[in-house]
Each structure stands twice: as structure tokens, then as C-alpha cells.
């Protein structure tokens, strides 16, 4: 990912300036935007002094009759006066030959099969694009604004000693006009064996006390994550019972430190992972015993039925979860935040329509008692996964409102979650407040 944020799959929450990361900067820099007539003949033949069209026996300027044999072109030199074919004509020749071959009657069935394949490949994306654009149309219903259950992902600097009292006061001033109730403060990452060294969050108690003092009612949750070994040899292995037990102990550890909840971001997590569901059941018992929250960052839902299976078979990375698996996860937690960004969509209208679709799909299977939050990108990047001009805060907020309007307009346990504090620009905060906070 870009210099201003970390890859969501690692859950490491490292902003510029952390050990092993990019060099410190006052603010994460925005990346640069990643960035017919035929040719004229190079010369003309000399003007002929005679030729096949000249009258035989014509006179020259002196009036004398010219020798008829002198007017006939010499076959040995005629080719030297023929104009050289232009580059455009030379390039067109092979294509004309191929076109002639392709039109042969013997290739009638191959032509039909090729045309059918083109339609099969192009029609689904075209139809999906039209659907997303239509999803972005219309007006959100009245009253579909913040329920004051929004969240903000925050970097590791808040618990490792880099942030001071002045930073907390500035954060309080920034959040005063928003609907943010939960702060996911990065306190990890977990080790690959599921353990968490206490040295990873030395200033946690100070931060929690300062937040409670400056922002009464705002909850501070420990954001814990790690890369899973689902698509490579290195990472945390949920299939190991000892690893899952260590993750549960790590959750109890941060709750004992005073955090109001444990927020987990484990990626890449494949749809249908039974070990993950088992882990959530064990974590829920610990968080309930502490009177705390269990929260998770969730993958996006299949925009088309079983797309995760097809995509996984082709690429080895099944990006989406099935809607059924999303519902299974949502029933085991107190809060679920959809990472509805990094979609690779090229247009703002398509991205907004996609968020509207994701919102509806998630609402359909999330219990009313579970907080559902739709992620919005508080960062700018321009690469194959994320087009900053398309994935805007304004489009994410409008899409969330449209999905809420069409599916469960009066739902109270709903909000948006901003990723991530250290990459946010003022224009991101402004778009969020204008579109969602009223």
C-alpha cells in the first residue's frame, strides 16, 4: 500500500515513523497520479520528360521534334522512380492479409466461437457495471444519517509513546462534531504464534485515561491483527489449537490493560473458515467475562453468487466472503466493520453503487443487535487496487445511505468506520461530516 497507510491484510497499523517503516513525515504524502492521415511521401519522382502518356514525336522547348525512343521509360530504371510505400501502408498490409484469411468460409465456425467467447467475457462485467451505476442512483431516505455509532481506525503511535496530551486534545476537538463513538487503536501486531508482548502497547493506560477525560463516552478498543498463513508459508495458523488459545489469552491481556474491547483484523481470511468461527466463540466468552466488546474487520461480500470460489480458483486469493459466512461471523460478535475499500473500481459512481450493494447484503444477514459499520477510505492512493479519484469518502457515505435506505432504513445499530487517522486529509473529514453527520 501507499506510504500513508499499511496494507489492511497485515493489521499492523504502522504510520510513518514507526520502527522498520518509512521515514517520518509531517503528514502522509499523496502519491503522484500514475501516472490520423497516412504519412506524406518522403519524396516525389522527378517530373517526367516523357512517358507513355506523352505524345510520340512531340516537340521540346526549342520546337524540335524529340526522338520517340527517348520518351519511352527505361524498364531498368522505372522502378527507381516508383514512390516508396509509406509506413502506414506497410503496417496495414499484414492486417489485410490476416483479414482475408479470417474471412475464408472454412473458418466460419471458429469465427462464431470466438465471437461467443468475447460476449461471454465482456457481457458480465458490462452488466455488473450497469447494475452498480443504477445502485448509485436515486436519493437516500430522510433520516439516514449518523446514529453516533461510527468508528475510527488509529495507528500505533497512540500507544507507543509518540503521542502526547496535546495530540489527545486535538483529537477531541476533531471528533467533537462527528458521530465517532469507537476508536480502534492499534496495539499489536500479534506474533505468528498468537501471543502479544506487553511491550507492544506501553502507553495504553495513559491513552485510555486521557481519552476518557477529554472525550467522555468514547470507547477505546485494542486493534489486534496479523497476516494469516492461508496463501503462503508464513503467518498465523488458525488451524492450530495452541495458536487460537494464545490469541484468546492476548485478548484477555489487552482487556486487563483497560481497553473497552478487542477488535480483530486477520487477513487474508477465506470464506467458510471453521477455525475462525471457533476462535470467535472462544473470544466471545472472554470479552463477555470482562464486560467488553468483541469487534472484527470483515472482508467484502460476494457481489455475485459464489464469486469468492471462482475468483479463488483463478487467482488463489478469494477476496470476498459468501453472504452466509458473513452472517455467521456477524452473529458471533458485537460489532462488525466491512472493509469496503480497495475495490479496484475506476469510477466514483461505480464505487458508490458497490458500497450501496455491500451495505444491503450485509444488512440482510447481520442481527439487529450487532453493530454494522461500513468502512470508508480516509486515505489517498492510486494503484491497481485503489483509485483515489473513484474511492472517495463522499461516494462511500452516499452508498452507505442508499443501502440503508433500501434495506433497513430505521436500523439503529449502524454506522461508518474511517480508515485510517494518520492518512486522513481535511477534505475527508469534511466529506464525512457533510454527507453523514447532521
Order of helices and strands: HHHEHEHEHEHEHHEHEHEH
From the alpha carbons, calculate the radius of gyration and give it in angstroms: 33 Å
Distance from N terminus to C terminus (CA atoms, Å) equals 33 Å
- The backbone outline, from C-alpha atoms, is globular
Average the pLDDT over all residues and give the rounded result. Answer: 82
Residue stretches low in confidence (pLDDT < 50, at least 5 long) are 7-12, 16-71, 77-82
What's the quaternary structure here? Answer: single chain
Strand order of the largest sheet: 1-2-3-4-5-6-7-8
The largest sheet, given as strand count, sense and whether it forms a barrel, is: 8 strands, parallel, barrel
Structural class: alpha/beta
Percentage of residues assigned to helices: 25-40%
- Helix count equals 12
Counting DSSP E segments of at least 2 residues, the number of strands comes to: 8
What fraction strand? 5-15%
Architecture overview:
By secondary structure, the protein is of the alpha/beta class. The chain is built from twelve helices and eight strands. An eight-stranded parallel beta barrel has the order 1-2-3-4-5-6-7-8, surrounded by six helices. β6, α10 and β7 form a beta-alpha-beta unit. The longest helix has 28 residues. It is globular and about 80 Å long. The two termini are 33 Å apart.
Amino acid at each position: 500500500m501507499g506510504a500513508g497507510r499499511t496494507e489492511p491484510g497485515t493489521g499492523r497499523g504502522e504510520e510513518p515513523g514507526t520502527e522498520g517503516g518509512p521515514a517520518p513525515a509531517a503528514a502522509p504524502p499523496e502519491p503522484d497520479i500514475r501516472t490520423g492521415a497516412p504519412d506524406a511521401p518522403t519524396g516525389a519522382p522527378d517530373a517526367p520528360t516523357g512517358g507513355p502518356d506523352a505524345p510520340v514525336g512531340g516537340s521540346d522547348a526549342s520546337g524540335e521534334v524529340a526522338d520517340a525512343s527517348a520518351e519511352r521509360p527505361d524498364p531498368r530504371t522505372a522502378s527507381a522512380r516508383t514512390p516508396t510505400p509509406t509506413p502506414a501502408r506497410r503496417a496495414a498490409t499484414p492486417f489485410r492479409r490476416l483479414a482475408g484469411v479470417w474471412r475464408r468460409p472454412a473458418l466460419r465456425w471458429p469465427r462464431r466461437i470466438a465471437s461467443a467467447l468475447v460476449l461471454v467475457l465482456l457481457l458480465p462485467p458490462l452488466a455488473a457495471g450497469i447494475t452498480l451505476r443504477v445502485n448509485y442512483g436515486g436519493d437516500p431516505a430522510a433520516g439516514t444519517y449518523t446514529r453516533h455509532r461510527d468508528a475510527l481506525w488509529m495507528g500505533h503511535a497512540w500507544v507507543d509513546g509518540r503521542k502526547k496530551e496535546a495530540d489527545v486534545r486535538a483529537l477531541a476537538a476533531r471528533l467533537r462534531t462527528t458521530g465517532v463513538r469507537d476508536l480502534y487503536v492499534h496495539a499489536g501486531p500479534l506474533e505468528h504464534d498468537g501471543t502479544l508482548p506487553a511491550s507492544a502497547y506501553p502507553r495504553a493506560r495513559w491513552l485510555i485515561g486521557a481519552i476518557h477525560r477529554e472525550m467522555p463516552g468514547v470507547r477505546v478498543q485494542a486493534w489486534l491483527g496479523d497476516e494469516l498463513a492461508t496463501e503462503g508459508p508464513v503467518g498465523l495458523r488458525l488451524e492450530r489449537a495452541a495458536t487460537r488459545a494464545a490469541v484468546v489469552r492476548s485478548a484477555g491481556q489487552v482487556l486487563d490493560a483497560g481497553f473497552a474491547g478487542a477488535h480483530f483484523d486477520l487477513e487474508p481470511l477465506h470464506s467458510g473458515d471453521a477455525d475462525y468461527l471457533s476462535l470467535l466463540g472462544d473470544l466471545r466468552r472472554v470479552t463477555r467475562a470482562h464486560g467488553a466488546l468483541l469487534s472484527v474487520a470483515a472482508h467484502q461480500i460476494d457481489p455475485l453468487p459464489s464469486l469468492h470460489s471462482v475468483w479463488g480458483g483463478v487467482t488463489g486469493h478469494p477476496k470476498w466472503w459468501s453472504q452466509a459466512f458473513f452472517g455467521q461471523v456477524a452473529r458471533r460478535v458485537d460489532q462488525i466493520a466491512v472493509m469496503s475499500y480497495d475495490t479496484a473500481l475506476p469510477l466514483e459512481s461505480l464505487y458508490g453503487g458497490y458500497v450501496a450493494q455491500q451495505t444491503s447484503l450485509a444488512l440482510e444477514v447481520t442481527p439487529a443487535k450487532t453493530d454494522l459499520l461500513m468502512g470508508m477510505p480516509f486515505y489517498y492512493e492510486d494503484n491497481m487496487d485503489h483509485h483515489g479519484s473513484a474511492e472517495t469518502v463522499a461516494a462511500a457515505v452516499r452508498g452507505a445511505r442508499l443501502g440503508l435506505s433500501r434495506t433497513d432504513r430505521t436500523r439503529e445499530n449502524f454506522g461508518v468506520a474511517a480508515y485510517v487517522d494518520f492518512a486522513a486529509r481535511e477534505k475527508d473529514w469534511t466529506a464525512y461530516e457533510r454527507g453523514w453527520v447532521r
